[in-house]
Amino acid sequence: MNRRILALVLMVTVLALVALALVKPWEGSDSSRARTADSTTLKTWWFDDHEQNAEGPVADEAVRRSSFYEVRVASAAAPEQLFDSFVHMSIPRSGRDKQGYADEDGAEFASEARMTMCWSSFLQDEDVWVEVSLTTGQTIGSADEVTVRPLALDLTVEMVDQDTVRVPVPRTAQGSARRPRPASSLGRRSRRCDADRRSGRPRSE
Asked: Does the pLDDT of residue 75 top 80, yes or no?
């Protein structure tokens, strides 16, 4: 292609992009800056179409994102290179009222207590660090306030700062689930967040 034609094509493309930006402002949120891992030894996921909504239904095409926690994962070999791992959240009846019935359905207590459950899934074929951060403004006084279940795993918890802890997660052939749980999440409203890691397909709930 002639250099002048190529330069003209590039100029038109740039002008079109600038015009688009002027007509429709960028609608990206923090999700546009999410950094995920996609290697043979570590895989994390993110969903751009998400809502942080702990009260009611989300849009049909949206994924409910935790309003309370964020999770990032790093290889033990490069702990400073952290990757985002989407934290899902579920609420009783997906935030809806009883649909077409009035009988008890087993969700009354959870709904009245405004209980939530959160989890994050990733794949690993190496030892990793998992960082869990509170996004509520609450703080963690010490690593002793965080419990990792199952207790039999005997994993250590390290403080990163006043709202973040990290946990070493070794590679295991059979896979497992680990649940770091800050004491602050077990308060009056019984909010709960489980950061799950499984070797296999990502868990969907």
From this structure: yes
